[in-house]
Amino acid sequence: MFNGNGPIAWRVAQINERVNGAKAQDLYLYLQEAEAVDGMHVTINGRKMLQFASYSYLNLLGHPKIDAAALAAINEFGSGTHGVRILAGTIRLHNELERTISGFKGTEDAIVFSSGFVCNYATIAALVGRNDVVISDKLNHASIVDGCLMSRAKFVRVDHNDMDSLEKALAAVPDGKGKLVVADAVFSMDGDILNLPAVVDLCNKYEALLMIDEAHSVGVIGETGHGVEEYFGLKNVIDLKMGTLSKTIPSVGGYIAANAELISYLKHAARAFIFSAALPPASVAAAKASFEVMLDEPERVKTLQRNVDHFIGGLQARGFDTLNSQTPIVPIIIGDDERAWLMSKIAQDEGIFVLPVVSPAVPANLSRLRANVTAGHTLAEIDRAMDVFEMAAKKVGLL
Predict the structure, then answer these.
(1) Calpha distance 60→249 (Å, rounded)
(2) Strand 47-51 and strand 132-137: pairing?
(3) How is the chain split among helix, strand and coil, in percent rounded to 5?
(4) How many CB atoms lie within 10 A of CB 147?
(5) pTM for the full predicted model
(6) Per annotation, catalytic residue among 54, 188, 283, 325
(7) How confident is the chain (399 residues) per 10-residue block, as mean pLDDT?
(8) CB-hemisphere CA count at 13 Å for 113?
(9) C-alpha dihedral over 373, 377, 382, 384, to 10 degrees?
(10) CA of residue 72 relative to chain centroid, distance
(11) CA-CA to 101 of 20 to 30 Å: which in 1, 204, 294, 397?
């Protein structure tokens, strides 16, 4: 039993009370152990379910070329690197991956971190400090928020995708202060897309550095899946292009693609790069091969975008509120937490693996099912999922 007291004990008790309450009602759906993952299916407790909670947007997990690259890397270099990148931990594959990323994103160089969360956290904290201002969209990912807080810069949050709010914040920065604007390209809970052209114009007007998190946009938006710049027909307008290696790319890690000076700075100033163990060879090789597959098999992006349109259109036709999503992240707005739990449980009982997002991760009146569609789903599978969601919504009184 936890023996703490005061505020610490209260926080621990509050979380555990909520978790235990959900478990008592058989509604705790997190941390379920997958016994098998097979394409767009997952097996849990002996039940094979259709997967609608995966970030495998282009269905690259298990791709033979990617798996072969990972196995070859283990055979050549072993399972780890025994050190941090800046000392003894860099191998040939790390540099090859960074060159692959910079080529894909059209920049001079790139740096790879041990996770996407660490990438945002470390980069922001390294770029700005006490005498600077960092401006963040209110719906940015937690890793961005924590990086802003860790930096000790003045932290200004602006209304979501609101250019008037952003300009007001930029105009208020005193002369001589460093300015960094950070935003998601595709917002991870709502699935909508940043108004990048307007953000770029404002950053240019007020001479602010721009960092964009493309965790959910690479492989997803743009004619060939190259991300938010391609989506808007822009080229090299973002100073720091952040992305992950654990969503569309079926590996682990995060990266920044930028000009050579910024990358050199981060390699010698970002504490989580300097003091974290290097990514293991298999993960690095898998990530590099994944970018190559994306280029070799562009039809995956087209299939994904077709499926997104079919899924969102079908849900809206059934009467669901999907906010302003234009991407594979599709929020099915439920309202209160309890109904979100119940709908998720009904869906899983019917063989559709989907999960609820409830307060405080989102406002209490905007609890939702966070359904992710991928290139691996067939149209028939998407229709099946929508039928189940409709049935569940009627059971809980949503429709």
Answers:
(1) 7
(2) unpaired
(3) 45, 20, 35
(4) 30
(5) 0.96
(6) 188
(7) 79 91 91 94 96 97 97 97 94 98 98 97 97 97 97 98 98 96 97 98 98 98 98 98 98 98 98 97 98 98 98 98 98 95 97 95 92 98 98 96
(8) 27
(9) -130
(10) 28
(11) 204
377 φ, ψ to 5°? -80, 140
Q: Is 41 a catalytic residue?
A: no
- From CA 139, how far away is CA 39, in angstroms rounded? 31
CA angle, 141 then 144 then 147, to 5°? 150
Residues near 329 by Cβ (< 8 Å), separated by ≥ 6?
Answer: 186, 187, 188, 189, 190, 191, 216, 370, 372
Catalytic, 216? Answer yes
Token digits for 364? 């209490």
Tell me which of 63, 94, 179, 247 is the catalytic residue: 247
CA dihedral (65, 70, 76, 79) in degrees, to 10, reads -170
Burial class, 21, CB count within 10 angstroms (exposed 0-12 / middle 13-18 / buried 19+): exposed
Contacts for 89 with CB less than 8 Å, ≥ 6 apart: 81, 82, 83, 277, 278
Residue 215 to residue 301: CA distance in whole angstroms: 16
65 in active site = no
Q: Which of 63, 216, 288, 377 is catalytic?
A: 216
**Measured between alpha carbons, how far is 265 from 252 in angstroms, rounded to an integer?**
23
Q: Six-digit token pair at 360? A: 């405080």
Which domains, ranges and CATH numbers included, belong to the chain? 25-54+298-395 (3.90.1150.10), 64-296 (3.40.640.10)
Q: Which residue is it, tokens 């001079």?
A: 108
Q: Is 363 exposed, middle or buried (0-12, 13-18, 19+ CB in 10 A)?
A: exposed
User: Phi and psi (nearest 5°) for 330?
Assistant: -120, 105
